[in-house]
Amino acid sequence: MNEIQAFLSQAWPWYVSGPLITLIMFLMFYFGKSFGISSTFKTACSIVGAGRYIPFFKMDWRNQIWNMVFVVGAIAGGVISSTYLKNPEPIQLSIDTVERLSELGIKNAGANYLPEALFSFDTIFTLKGLVFMIFGGFLVGFGTRYAGGCTSGHGITGLSKLEPTSLIAVVGFFIGGLIMTYFVLPYLIQL
Questions:
Q1: What average pLDDT does range 50-76 have in this prediction?
Q2: Were both Cys, which of 29, 54, 57, 120 would link to 116 (CB 3.0–4.6 Å)?
């Protein structure tokens, strides 16, 4: 059991994960489905009745129930991997990255996947926490709606279908991520 657990607690190599993603995408195309987290959010809102108030959410959610199965599987997979398959070793970061994060006020970089200086119950109700959670959440929602899908939808499904709009969206996601990382995030961390 320890050998299996050791294998599963490591990042899977590209020659395992790549073909699995390809298989899943092939099956989704075959059954006429498209993958994306934002469509799952739309399904959840439709289930709770948001379609009565907002026309965007008016849809037959029963045809999209597989989205909710996906969410349950993602949550269950996260719980299983973080509880039973967790790698006890610290995250391997370059010395340069640790130094740069330390300069920004993030201590013990690499100890956790989510730095406690940004993501902890102590910071939720601070100005920094509100900016990250409320303003960041608004920007993610706005960007997803404006781009016509989320990063996983465009990056996996759209690029698999060779859709030009998905290529443009993915390039925009990367440019936005670089701008955020190098020009905006250092100022937000200092809040």
A1: 86
A2: 120
